[in-house]
Structure formats: structure tokens, C-alpha cells
Amino acid sequence: MSESAPVVAETERLRLRGFAAQDLAALVRIFGDPEVMRYIGLGGTRAPEAARRTLERCAADARTEPFAIWSVERREAPGFIGWCGLAHVPDDERIEVAYLIDKPYWGRGYATEAARAALSFAFERANLDEIIALARAPNVASINVMRKLGMRDAGTGFFYGGEAVIHTLSAAEYFAARER
To answer: How far is CA 109 from its chain centroid?
Structure first.
């Protein structure tokens, strides 16, 4: 894994790039924060080794797959503040947009901004037909991000070991919204 990773997308305030070695310390800290990790998977903190494996997997995916989960950093002050990107949903054929922002950066619209860039990548560069987003029902902030992205409620399902709310957005809906 290189020290610098290629930039995948830029927004007004953010940069999405491949994971790099310098992201590990921040990812270990985030994985150890029970409040940030409360709704990730089945919830709960994760060991530093899990952070290392996640970073390595995401970095490898960015090199070998047409899309991945990418590191999110602020353009004004580079440094890992979370992740966002596209991933295959385990035991499912669909692709999800996933996002996680560190607690000091909550409430600033960064998750929505990063996820919007990931959706743009999905539909404009990867030519995907549909993207879903998943959240645990109590995670109102994540569900609000989905709504701000123009995703529509598609019910619930069992993902990542528990029940999740599903939202979806098709390429046709994405492009129609851009024309308005």
C-alpha cells in the first residue's frame, strides 16, 4: 500500500481517495469509538487488527475492482475523517453506497456530500443500474442522508447480521433528478 493514494472524486469540501497507510491510526481510533461504531454491522467497537484488515481490503479493492470504499478527507485539511464508497452487499447481488464519518465531523453534511460523489461515480463512471443504502432503523442520521440523496424507501431486509432499512436509487432516477 502506497503512502499516497489516487483521488477518485472531489467535491466542494471533500476528497475521496484510495486508502493509504497513514489512514490506519485514525481508523483504529474510529473503530474503538462505541458511539461512531454503534450502527456499523451489529454495532460495537472493533480491535486494531480489524481496522488494519479493513484498510488493506479497501486499498486492494480500489486497485482491482471498478469501485470501492474510499477514504474521505477534507480538502482544506487532508487527513482521514471517514470512508464512503460502493461495495457489493454480502449474500446479495446489489451494490450499496456506504459511509462512515468520524464523530468530530458529524452534523456538517460531509456524509451526504461524500455519498453524493459516490453515487455520481456509480452512475456516471461505473455505469451501474441501481444503488441501495442500508441502515439500522434507529440510525436516523443515516436514513436522513439517504433521503437527502433522493433515495426512496424500499422496506427492510436482513443484512450484516441484523434487520436494516433499505433505500434505493436507480440510474434513471439519478439522471432525471440531475436534469431538474
So the answer is: 14
